[in-house]
Amino acid sequence: MAPDNDMRCSGCGVAIQTESPEKLGYAPAAALAREPRLCQRCFRIKHYNELSSVTPNQNDFLRILSGIGTEKALVVHIVDLFDFEGSLIGGLHRFVGSNPIVLVVNKIDLLPKAINLNRIRNWVQKQAKENGLRPADIVLCSARKNIGFDRVVESIAHHRGSNDVYVVGATNVGKSTLINRLIRDYSDIEAELTTSPYPGTTLDLVHIPLDDGRHIIDTPGIVYESRLTEVADKRDLKTLLPDKPIKPLVFQLNERQTLFFGAFARFDFVQGERQSFTCYVSNALKVHRTKLDKADELYAEHKGGMLAPPSREHLEALPPLAKHAFRIPKGSHSDVYISGLGWIAVNSDAGAQIVVHAPKGVKVAVRDSLI
Ligand code: GDP
Questions:
Q1: pLDDT (tens digit per residue) in 210-253
Q2: Which are the contacts of 173, defined by CB distance < 8 A and separation ≥ 6?
Q3: Which of 71, 96, 120, 242 has the most CB atoms lying inside 10 A of its own CB?
Q4: Which is nearest to 88 in space by CA: 173, 178, 174, 180?
Q5: Best residue for ligand 1 mutational test, from 106, 168, 172 (most atoms within 8 Å of Cβ)
Q6: Which among 227, 235, 182, 249 is positioned nearest to 338, based on CA atoms?
Q7: E strands along 88-130, which residues?
Q8: Backbone φ, ψ for residue 207 (5° rounding)
Q9: From atom 15 of ligand 1, which residue's Cα is the shortest distance away?
């Protein structure tokens, strides 16, 4: 059947649907009577200068990425410092060809006070390299708190030459917050956006005009299901996603002690000398210490109750916990990270044997310490 033009958004042309707010083309049913007919995304851009994320499927996203490789452009890849490995787009160079990539590391406001940012930048550089990313520049910022934003704008201006700028990132890294800041504070596009239709806006990309006729192009956020923040119930995100500087929690543990992070994950110190473990997780998430020998029973009895979030109801939708065993070498400074939840720093003189339990599919690994 031919698409019904009346049911298309007059801003971006996407087919309008009223079922899934997080997907392309969503408009509340009540909005269908308005003229011009706009999807919620275009409505927000037009009236509030506010961009919201939509989630395409993986194939759509890869198609968009590969398209970038066919033209000359600057790619701005936004990652979340709080979930660096989880939010990095693997193999980005393969898709975007020889185009330069500026790596914008967002949410630095979450770092505990008095952290040396040069050290963080070096760490990012090393981790990026290990993950096959060779950025032309690395910028640390906080889109929410407007820290480092002048540097973001400077770097984009410097590296784009006279080309378009594509902004890519996983969901929840703060891409919308960052682009909204660009729109509000760094561009005079308001006049253009308030006149419909939006210049150059296509089905799945939003084009934000720049002074020289080029555009900043926002791509939809990619969903990585290896992040706890993707598999958890959306209502638990306010607990999982920190919104204040993280207060590290230090635990002196004897071997055969366990830490529970709500009922989302569990960290067993299986073997090693008594030592300290520093947890970097959202301040809103409760950490509960117990004996390893009692941990299974405690979880079975108290998950969703004393061990929460998630609540019992949300827990049912979460994959069961899977085990990951690690040996932390003697004398190393390592983080055991659980993508989307945070990490546990182990500065181990004597080495340690660790088992992490996290919902199946969520990425868990050991890396060099960030802090
Ligand atoms: P998107 O899915 O990448 O477009 O991400 P959003 O812009 O919607 O942000 C996802 C979540 O991260 C929201 O809860 C934001 O408030 C939060 N966020 C965005 N930028 C920052 C930041 O710089 N610092 C902190 N702490 N949170 C941020």
A1: 777 888 888 877 878 899 998 898 889 889 999 899 999 999 99
A2: 78, 79, 80, 83, 87, 106, 107, 221
A3: 96
A4: 173
A5: 172
A6: 227
A7: 101-106
A8: -100, 120
A9: 174
Closest ligand 1 atom number to CA of residue 175:
3
For the segment 312-355, what is each residue's pLDDT rounded down to a tens digit?
888 988 999 999 999 999 999 999 999 999 999 998 788 999 99
pLDDT above 70 (res 27) = yes
How far CA 83 is from CA of 141, 229, 251, 281, 282, in Å, comes to 14, 10, 22, 11, 12
- Residue-range domain boundaries for the chain: 4-48, 58-224, 236-368
Ligand 1 pocket residue status of 180, Cβ below 6 Å: no
Burial class (CB in 10 A: 0-12, 13-18, 19+), 31: middle
Asked if residues 138 and 105 have their Cβ atoms less than 8 Å apart, the reply is yes
Ligand 1: which of 83, 144, 219, 236 to mutate, most ligand atoms within 8 Å of CB?
144
Does the structural domain 58-224 have CATH classification 3.40.50.300?
Answer: yes
Residues in Cβ contact with 13 at an 8 Å cutoff, skipping those fewer than 6 apart: 201, 202, 203
pTM here? 0.83
CA 137 to chain centre: 19
Q: Is 45 in the pocket of ligand 1 (CB under 6 A)?
A: no
Q: What is the chain's length?
A: 371
- In the three-class reduction of DSSP (H, G, I as helix; E, B as strand; rest coil), residue 43 is classed as helix
Which two structure tokens, joined as six digits, stand for 236?
């638990």
The pLDDT value recorded for residue 202 is 38
pLDDT average, residue stretch 298-312: 95
Would you call 347 exposed, middle or buried from its count of C-beta atoms within 10 A (0-12, 13-18, 19+)?
Answer: middle
Joined tokens for residue 41: 């995304």
Residue in 42, 123, 44, 134 with CA at minimum distance from that of residue 91: 134
Pairwise CA distance, residues 263 & 285, whole Å: 10
Hey, which residues does 2 pair with through a beta bridge?
none
Q: Which of 81, 168, 177 to mutate to test the pocket of ligand 1 (most atoms within 8 A of CB)?
A: 177
The confidence band for 186, taking pLDDT boundaries of 50, 70 and 90, is low
